[in-house]
């Protein structure tokens, strides 16, 4: 069977791929995401393209060390009011993030790339649109106290698979895209590459 490496140590991506029955290893990519963004950011790049560029950088970094393997790189950007946002640094930043997103619609752009050696075999990006309900500062404070530091692992400062679901009025897009790994297109491509049983 083909050796598959997930170029990520994200517990959520590992869980999704493992739950799908895929046998894989994990290895963290050694890239500076902010430096990659800075190198291409001045060109008016779209949030979807930025997610793809970061996913590709991760896949190629790990694939260079394991040229025999299929390496999966994934990344996600959050875009809101034409701006790409990053993970909040602390709980105060998380509070500001939720209040900024309150009452509006933001997009999660989840990209996945498969590389082997120096070659990129496949790229895909899925988009989910999430509309938050109007949140009061008092509710946000109570919500963050309940959710805890886990919110700092998410660019949106929420965990949709937990109490974060209470922040939303409407969600357009699939669960896998929201968590950060467009699983159905990825599995289809792995079957096409004869990397998993089809």
TrEMBL record:
<protein>
    <recommendedName>
        <fullName>7-methyl-GTP pyrophosphatase</fullName>
        <ecNumber>3.6.1.-</ecNumber>
    </recommendedName>
</protein>
<feature type="active site" description="Proton acceptor">
    <location>
        <position position="75"/>
    </location>
</feature>
<dbReference type="Pfam" id="PF02545">
    <property type="entry name" value="Maf"/>
</dbReference>
<keyword id="KW-0378">Hydrolase</keyword>
<keyword id="KW-0963">Cytoplasm</keyword>
<feature type="site" description="Important for substrate specificity">
    <location>
        <position position="161"/>
    </location>
</feature>
<comment type="function">
    <text>Nucleoside triphosphate pyrophosphatase that hydrolyzes 7-methyl-GTP (m(7)GTP). May have a dual role in cell division arrest and in preventing the incorporation of modified nucleotides into cellular nucleic acids.</text>
</comment>
<comment type="similarity">
    <text>Belongs to the Maf family. YceF subfamily.</text>
</comment>
<feature type="site" description="Important for substrate specificity">
    <location>
        <position position="76"/>
    </location>
</feature>
<dbReference type="GO" id="GO:0009117">
    <property type="term" value="P:nucleotide metabolic process"/>
</dbReference>
<dbReference type="GO" id="GO:0047429">
    <property type="term" value="F:nucleoside triphosphate diphosphatase activity"/>
</dbReference>
<dbReference type="InterPro" id="IPR029001">
    <property type="entry name" value="ITPase-like_fam"/>
</dbReference>
<dbReference type="GO" id="GO:0005737">
    <property type="term" value="C:cytoplasm"/>
</dbReference>
<feature type="site" description="Important for substrate specificity">
    <location>
        <position position="12"/>
    </location>
</feature>
<keyword id="KW-0546">Nucleotide metabolism</keyword>
<dbReference type="InterPro" id="IPR003697">
    <property type="entry name" value="Maf-like"/>
</dbReference>
